[in-house]
Write a structure and sequence with these properties.
With 401 residues, this protein is an alpha/beta fold. The chain has a single domain, classed as FAD/NAD(P)-binding domain (3-Layer(bba) Sandwich). 34% of the residues lie in helices and 23% in strands. The chain starts with a strand and ends with a helix. The protein binds flavin-adenine dinucleotide (FAD).
Amino acid sequence: MSPRRAVVIGAGIGGLTAALGLHRRGWRITVLERAATLAPVGAALTLAPNAQRALAVLSLGEEVRRLAAWDGDALLRDPRGRPLARTTSESVITRFGGPLVVLRRSDLIDLIVGRLPEGSIRTGEPAFLADAGGPGRPAKVSTAGEVVYEADLVVCADGVNSTSRRVLFPQHPGPAYGGWTVWRILAPTPPRFVPHETWGGGHVWGSLIRDSEGVFIYACAVTERGGRSADGEKAELRRRFGHWHHPVPALLDSVGEEDILRHDVFHMAQPLERYQSGRAVLLGDAAHAMVPTLGQGANMAIEDSVVLAHHAAPGADLPAALARYDQQRRPRTTALIRRAERASRLMSVRSPAALALRDGAIRAMSKVVPALLLRGFDGVADWHPPVTPQDPRPHDTHVAG
Ligand SMILES: Cc1cc2nc3c(=O)[nH]c(=O)nc-3n(C[C@H](O)[C@H](O)[C@H](O)COP(=O)(O)OP(=O)(O)OC[C@H]3O[C@@H](n4cnc5c(N)ncnc54)[C@H](O)[C@@H]3O)c2cc1C
């Protein structure tokens, strides 16, 4: 019997991990990516133990730990540099069974691509879900080059602005502006550097070690959507963050305009009622884009992928498998969209009185509540993937590292 064929639309972290999961289950896969190359947007990614366990199911756990540059010691500060709360790698491991790691997006992409069959990824191919298919009828995907692919399964992993989602659920209003603009920056590591996240009024700055040479920075501000600075983003960041504690000004001084990426953040404020229709499933940001306040968007896309591959095992009844994917992924990811929104509200506080209250409460609680910052990840970072007997054991992630 010839292997079943899956077409994956989009070669972000979600599409690629789904392709790998399905390939390992014996599917013949084709990944269609509209961009000319696989250069990922954004420099680095934090992966919590939940996503690392999922990657371990794909036999990538050890490699991820090897590539990771940072594993969880961090400080939450106010803009003057005063500590609000602290987490340690040990406390993350104790609570969630593994560390939090950061790695380059490009390293993760290279790792996954290296495990996919040669020729399975086609770049420069914008793809369109022409027909979601159904019982006895294949799904169809067309490309700008007018090739039409017929498939037993189509994985729509085409990101927050997914055209596939519009085809499947035309009545859905689409993603909404999440209220934040985010700048992503790579900078050289300054002296005496300690990873930190700093919360001001409606502003957040995070600096994490990306590798031995570089620091990965995310700077976020509550703003109107579509804003751009007439005098450039570096000047904008200096106005907003230039008076913050060391090393924020030094990091800003060390980068050029070309090192700074600016994006408005969109999310699925109105969750979808289904992630599946016919032979097509939505996966990753296409299904459940969330504001990045928990750093879980790509983690969820990776979880989606291993759950999908788990159910779409050889010989499985496909409609039942896709229904189970929907049943397992939708409640979890919808809840996380909401949790990320709640964190966003806490970070968005702007009035001096509310800020004093928030920061005072965090400072006081962190003295009496152990691992205060980690509690927001309860039920998230402790997730375990479904495992079939031939899969590697997912709790290998930490032990191997
Ligand atoms: C500032 C910031 C920081 C973040 N940090 C983290 C973090 O630390 N940890 C974390 O887990 N998440 C993080 N996220 C979220 C994470 O980036 C996303 O959730 C994740 O990248 C989604 O992956 P995806 O594959 O679903 O979508 P995408 O990465 O958007 O990939 C979609 C792909 O589909 C392609 N595509 C689109 N349309 C078509 C088409 N018609 N045909 C073919 N291809 C198409 C696109 O070119 C793209 O390559 C962050 C997000 C932001 C904004």
